[in-house]
Amino acid sequence: GENVEQHPSTLSVQEGDSAVIKCTYSDSASNYFPWYKQELGKRPQLIIDIRSNVGEKKDQRIAVTLNKTAKHFSLHITETQPEDSAVYFCACYTGGFKTIFGAGTRLFVKA
Amino acid sequence: NAGVMQNPRHLVRRRGQEARLRCSPMKGHSHVYWYRQLPEEGLKFMVYLQKENIIDESGMPKERFSAEFPKEGPSILRIQQVVRGDSAAYFCASSPEDGAYEQYFGPGTRLTVT
After folding, report:
1. Has residue A46 got a pLDDT over 70?
2. Do the chains contact at A89 and B43, CB–CB below 8 Å?
3. Strand positions, DSSP E, chain A
C-alpha cells in the first residue's frame, strides 16, 4: 500500500541555523505534497505545498524541493527561530482521495 | 469566514458508550476528511466524504465506526461501544468544491475513554 517515510523523527538546531526534513513516498502516481506544522495541542496548519510539475517552491524562510524520479521531497527552514519549534508532517496525495501523512518530525530550536 | 469547526473539543466516555464527533466544514467546502491522531504519532486517514456520499472509507475500522455527511448539517463521526484504544485526537479537514488539494483542519476533538 501507499507509504510515506519521514526523517528525522527529532531534530534539534540552534537559533539561526537551517533545518531540513526529508520524506520519501512509494506511490509514483502521487502528485501533491503538502507540509503541515502542528504546535502542541493545536491543529495541523498547512505551511507550504508543491505539485508534481514543480521541482522547488519557496516562501520566505521555508522552501520545499521535490525529486519525482527518486520519490522524495524535503522541507528546508532557514534562519530558524524559537517559534519554529513544533512537529512537522509531510504528506502525500495519492490521487485516490486519500492523503498519507508521515510520522512527523519534532523540531526544537534552541535560543 | 469561519474556519473548520469541530465539537465538542473534549469528550470523555466510559467504555461501552457511544461517541459522536461533529465537523462543520469551511463555508463553500463540500469535501470532508476525518483523521485520527494517537499521542506522539502522525495523522491516520479514516474516511473521505462529500455531501451525502462516502467516497473512501478505507481507513475506517470495520466495526463500531461510521461516518456521514448529510445534505444539511455537520459531518458526524460515530464510534459505538468505545474502548480505551479509541482514545485519541480526531481531526476533520475540509477542501473546496472545485477539488483543490489543500485541506484545512479543524481544532480537533480529544476523546478520552475511561
Report:
1. yes
2. yes
3. 4-7, 10-14, 19-25, 32-38, 45-51, 56-59, 62-67, 72-77, 86-93, 99-101, 105-110
